[in-house]
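Hypothesis: this fold can be encoded by more than one sequence.
Test: take the structure tokens below, design a sequence, compare later.
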């Protein structure tokens, strides 16, 4: 994803899958505590849906919204951890595995992944 984007500007934007199908609306953005870089977005799926976490690294911000390089079904099947709290290292690992992403290097003792950057919750 492009750098230098205010993560709060993502909140409320529509999210689309790789084929352009709407997934939902970005509800919250989670930052990497060590770098401050936006790492995950919680996307509210459907009117009475839940939040599905999507990785921001391989995603693209367009005029239409956030485009993630995955099928809608994969995103909707992502683990649901609720919003408004830190993602634990175990939860983050589950997300990496779910999306088939390369695992990051071992976290340092001062790294606490997944800090919410704002939004609901």
């Amino acid at each position: 994803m492009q750098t230098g984007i205010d993560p709060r500007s993502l909140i409320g934007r529509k999210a689309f899958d790789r084929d352009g199908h709407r997934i939902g609306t970005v509800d919250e953005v989670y930052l990497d505590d060590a770098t401050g870089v936006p790492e995950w977005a919680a996307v509210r799926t459907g009117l009475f849906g839940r939040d599905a976490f999507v990785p921001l690294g391989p995603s693209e911000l367009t005029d239409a919204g956030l485009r993630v390089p995955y099928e809608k079904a994969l995103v909707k099947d992502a683990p649901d951890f609720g919003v408004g709290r830190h993602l634990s290292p175990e939860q983050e690992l589950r997300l990496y595995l779910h999306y088939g992403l390369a695992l990051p290097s071992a976290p340092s003792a001062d790294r606490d992944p997944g800090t919410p950057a704002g939004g609901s919750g």
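The chain has a mean pLDDT of 84. The first strand starts at residue 14 and ends at 16.
Hypothesis status: open.
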